[in-house]
Amino acid sequence: MIDYYSPTAEFYDLVGVQHWSQSDPLLAAALAGTDTGSGPVLDLGAGTGRATAVIGRVLPDARILAVEPSPGMRAALTSRVVRDEDLRRRVTVVAASAQEMELPDRLSGAVICGVLGYLDRSERAELWGRLLDRLPAGAPILVELMAVSAPQSVAPMRIARQTLGEQDYEAWLSGEPCGPDRMRWAATWRVLRGSRVVREVDVTHEWYTFGIEDLAAETGLTAKRITPELGVLVR
Ligand SMILES: C[S@@+](CC[C@H](N)C(=O)[O-])C[C@H]1O[C@@H](n2cnc3c(N)ncnc32)[C@H](O)[C@@H]1O
Fold this sequence. Notes:
- The chain has 2 domains: 6-145 and 210-234, Vaccinia Virus protein VP39 (Rossmann fold); 154-208, S-adenosyl-L-methionine-dependent methyltransferases (N-terminal domain of TfIIb, Single Sheet).
- It is 31% helix and 34% strand.
- The chain has 6 helices and 11 strands.
- S-adenosylmethionine (SAM) is lined by residues 1, 5, 44-47, 50-51, 68-70, 73, 97-99, 113-115, 118-119.
């Protein structure tokens, strides 16, 4: 597994907050009422813990298993959890990828935001096999994908901007097909003082393209699309 995220982990929450102010309430609404009696809720590829915090808020009795392979992202995740008395009691942070994580016998639900496109079809099939065995009927699997569900060219666009002290931070994204079901995304993170770029970090990600309906076909579950990126799968 390639760690795409450690080199830019410092920027993740800075630019994420704009997006999350819209998606967190949708995530919370989709999770509300989940029966948490079966086992922990899995937050797979938990990143810096933004969904972990949403799960914790909306499901106050849930134990949470936050699995995150990237050391940079995990540092931010641990930092978020340890400073919150309630999360500290309920969240277990595990350093592993989807392919290698160990799971408890039962789960109450799963949240998989921004992760599944890093897994090829056979890795996803293996993941579904392990998850579906552990989830009771009616348990939600919340999935966030990229809005593009088939390979296409995407011209460079600024996806976020944030100010911290005397500096502005920008995130730019462009994409090109790199296979019949895959895209190569180029992300650039810029730090500016006024109009002067003082730092720039470039990363390239490869992501399998599919939509929530494709995941329904893969899993045999029922899919409900919430936004072009966010959906929920339920048996
Ligand atoms: C776009 S971020 C999403 C983070 C978080 N879920 C959120 O919604 O803010 C993708 C995360 O998936 C993790 N990731 C990448 N490949 C993974 C894999 N094979 N298994 C588990 N996590 C993975 C990355 O390290 C990164 O933290």
